[in-house]
């Protein structure tokens, strides 16, 4: 594999992304993640993206407020708290 920096191949990408806030970007990533997996724990979400607890909690709260996910579920096997895509309810 050959790795290269993104701006070399997409020089306008930084400028196009400028209007997007960090919170909006985290919300979109959270949405796409849950559309991909359906349900997961905050631990799994945090592990994937490497977000600190405060940022992780905020992203999940924004996703809940937007009606994308709901929390308060429990994995019957592990007992771990889960967050799930609202459409699965």
Explained architecture:
This protein has 89 residues and is of the alpha+beta class. The protein has one domain (21-88): Orthogonal Bundle (Arc Repressor Mutant, subunit A). Helix content is 52%, strand content 15%. It contains 5 helices and 3 strands. The protein has helices at residues 6-9, 13-17, 22-37, 42-49, 53-65; strands at 39-40, 69-74, 81-85. Strands 1-3-2 form a 3-stranded antiparallel β-sheet. α3 crosses α5 (53-65). The protein is elongated and about 45 Å long. The model has no long low-confidence stretch (mean pLDDT 92).
Architecture blueprint of SSEs:
Blueprint: H1 6-9, H2 13-17, H3 22-37, E1 39-40, H4 42-49, H5 53-65, E2 69-74, E3 81-85
Antiparallel strand pairs: 1-3, 2-3
Keywords:
89 residues, 5 helices, Arc Repressor Mutant, subunit A, 52% helix, alpha+beta
Short description:
With 89 residues, the chain is α+β, with helices and mostly antiparallel strands.
What number of structural domains do the residues give? 1
Estimate what percentage of residues fall within beta strands. Answer: 5-15%
CATH topology category name: Arc Repressor Mutant, subunit A
Structural class: alpha+beta
Structure summary, number of beta strands: 3
Q: What's the average pLDDT? A: 92
Q: Could you spell the SSE succession in H and E letters?
A: HHHEHHEE
Q: Count of DSSP helices?
A: 5
The second-level CATH architecture is Orthogonal Bundle
State the helicity in percent bands: 40-55%
CATH superfamily: Winged helix-like DNA-binding domain superfamily/Winged helix DNA-binding domain
CATH class group: Mainly Alpha
Categorize the overall geometry: elongated
